[in-house]
Specification:
alpha+beta; 7-stranded mixed β-sheet; 6-stranded antiparallel β-sheet; 21 helices; about 15% strand
Length: about 650
């Protein structure tokens, strides 16, 4: 069963994401940054003065120590705070130990350079991460903050939050729509790409629904708001993506676990190298202490801590601009591991727009009576088959003629008329359960069987075909590394076989009741756990498929953004019904996982090389620090690639 649903549990303070550091006001961050730069300038001046010819040795030492203290002030402060909170192996602690030890072995210039480069590196990393967060926040700023309304005195600009559903506002060419609504007057082309990822403009006119965040391209339109600013589509996108910021993915947890275990081990190894190696081999302590310090500096986990969480945040934010909403980092991980994609049929792989192809009354029943019974049975039902029958009949019965109606999920519908007569409409299973005997064979198409007063009255045949984009979507999933694409449907084998054959599906499970669909999903999950791992994704409309979406390792709700059950149950919400967004979501998840892996492997390789060179005495302390800083910045820049994938 799914393991990634409960990702919103409160975290301990130590689990707070790196991005929390940037929750202070911009003015406060700027002041701190300027103060750190000021100290670096002071350190540089003091260090330069120490090289003035003719200075007494004592003065030179004082200047170098002062430069060391000025350059490392912020690092010392953070190291002390870390030690007091129980974090004994943070990057700041390691740099502090390395700097002090360099002074102790009469390498003051090394200690100054360590602190200077480390502090400069911290500034660069903080700036890079803060800039990344700014870019991402701008990326998510979808809707306008103000609207223009018509008043007796002309147009007036008011905050979008002040507009209530039912009120009207104007949107001119080039402006962003602030609230969800319906166009009252005017025509225009609308750019919907920032919410749907669709590059094709929407031709909007009176009666057309528009959403907050879309951009008006050409003419002026008047829009009647249907939702408040807080309930708009853009607001819900921002809430979903914003809620995913603090979540952790498996690569994030792996990096944190690695750095927690790896750093203390390296610290102990450095201690052994500094104390016991020169003792055993009768060599100079200063040489091996220097090499141990190189090892200590190299063990700094900055590249992991800063870049891996940023990969997930950038990936989730970037996906939202394609109309793909990951609810948390775990959903990205689960989708990247998917080996089986399970689909619902009606409305997902097929168009879901049925049309009546034939009315087959039973012997002794007229076509008119059969349709009358069908209309009574399907009145008020939202199922596509029911709607097709009602549209074909062209009538709607009066509600007072129907005493009660019961939907039997996966089978059909039972209705009791005011006269007391009972009507059953549904599949063959429902007919059997109701004890209805009939001799008409199951047709090779979608069929609704009708029975009234315990007598079989006939069936209505309906046609539905595979969506034009369904085969391309299935093939794209295979290309993304998905092993199996299967279909789970309550329809008969005769109904589902033509659709399955046209889509090149791996397997089709026909005639499935809801419980049977769940058993199929669980069977695949158990099989993957036994044979090397992998996950099962279920793609449904999020309304009728909520149990399956919940049971799968990763549930994908297609085009059900307005459905609260869909948003609650799914791990991935796709804002449109474009089936090609499913393989695109898998591709984005794979890209994020790959970049996370790069940001783990690349620093490890660099650190191993530095350790080899450091233990052989081929690099200086400041060189190791510089290499570590460059590695961290490169990892952060690499993480930002996720935003544009």
């Amino acid at each position: 069963m799914k393991t990634n649903k409960r990702t919103d549990a409160p975290r301990r303070p130590s689990d707070a994401p790196e991005s929390r550091r940037y929750s202070r006001s911009p003015a406060s961050d700027r002041t701190r940054r300027l103060f750190r730069i000021f100290l670096l300038v002071i350190a540089a001046v003091l260090y330069a003065l120490s090289y003035v010819p003719g200075l007494p040795a004592a003065v030179r030492i004082i200047l170098e120590v002062a430069a060391f203290l000025a350059a490392g002030f912020d690092i010392f402060r953070k190291a002390a705070a870390g030690i007091l909170s129980g974090d004994y192996f943070s990057a700041n602690v390691l740099m502090t130990v390395a700097g002090i030890c360099a002074l102790c072995i009469n390498q003051p210039h090394e200690s100054v350079l360590i602190m200077f480069i480390a502090q400069l590196g911290n500034l660069l990393q903080d700036k890079a991460v803060a800039s990344s967060h700014t870019v991402i926040e701008r990326h998510l700023k979808l809707s306008a903050e103000s609207v223009r309304i018509q008043t007796p005195d002309g147009l007036k600009t008011v905050p979008a939050e002040s507009i209530r559903p039912g009120e009207t506002f104007m949107v001119f060419a080039g402006e962003r729509i602030a609230l969800d609504g319906v166009v009252r007057s005017g025509t225009s082309e609308i750019d919907t790409s920032n919410l749907t990822g669709d590059a094709q403009p929407l031709n909007a006119g009176p009666g057309c629904r528009v959403q907050a965040g879309w951009i008006n391209i050409t003419g002026a339109i008047s829009v009647r708001a249907t939702h408040s600013a807080a309930d708009s589509a853009a607001s819900r996108v921002a809430q979903l993506v914003g809620g995913a910021k603090g979540s952790k993915g498996s690569a994030d947890s792996l990096a944190a676990k690695f750095s927690r275990n790896y750093t203390p081990v390296v610290f102990a190894l450095a201690l052994v190298i500094a104390v016991f190696v020169p003792l055993v081999f009768k060599q100079s302590y200063s040489i091996w202490i220097h090499r141990a310090l190189v090892l200590l500096v190299v063990s700094c986990p900055c590249a992991f801590v800063a870049s891996v969480p940023l990969c997930y945040l950038a990936g989730i934010s970037g996906a939202s601009r394609h109309g793909i909403l990951f609810k948390n980092a775990a959903a990205v991980d689960q989708l990247s591991k998917t080996r089986c994609a399970a689909f619902g049929k009606t409305g997902i792989l097929t168009g879901g727009r049925f049309s009546v192809s034939e009315v087959r009354p039973a012997p002794g029943v007229s076509k008119r009576h059969l349709l009358t019974f069908a209309v009574y049975a399907e009145a008020g039902c939202a199922h596509p088959l029911a709607q097709a029958i009602l549209d074909y009949a062209g009538v709607r019965p009066e509600s007072d003629l129907i005493a009660s109606a019961e939907d039997v999920r996966g089978r059909g519908r039972l209705v009791t008329l005011a006269s007391g007569q009972r009507i059953a409409a549904g599949n063959v299973v429902l007919m059997r359960e109701q004890g209805i005997r009939h001799e008409i064979e199951q047709p090779a198409a979608a069929a609704v069987h009708i029975a009234a007063a315990g007598r079989y009255c006939g069936c209505i045949l309906l046609e539905d075909t595979a969506r034009e984009d369904a085969r391309d979507a299935v093939e794209a999933l295979y290309d993304q590394g998905i092993d199996k694409c299967i279909m789970l449907t309550g329809d008969s084998k005769e109904e589902s076989a033509p659709v399955a054959a046209s889509l090149n599906l791996s397997e089709v499970f026909s005639g499935c009741l809801p419980a049977e669909k769940l058993r199929v999903i669980e069977t695949y999950q158990r099989s993957f756990r036994k044979h090397g791992g992998g996950t099962v994704a279920y793609i449904g409309d999020g309304v009728s498929d909520v149990p399956e979406i919940t049971a799968a390792d990763v549930g994908v709700a297609l085009g059900a953004f307005d459905s609260e059950p869909a948003v609650s149950a799914a791990d991935v919400v796709i804002t449109t019904r474009d089936l090609k967004k499913v393989p695109e979501a898998v591709r984005l998840a794979n890209s994020v996982s790959l970049i996370c892996a790069e940001n783990i492997v690349f620093p490890i390789v660099v650190k191993l090389i530095l350790i080899i060179f450091g233990l052989s005495g081929m690099i200086m302390l400041w060189t190791a620090v510089l290499a570590d800083v460059v590695t961290s910045v490169l990892a952060i820049l690499n993480a930002m690639r996720c935003l544009k994938k």
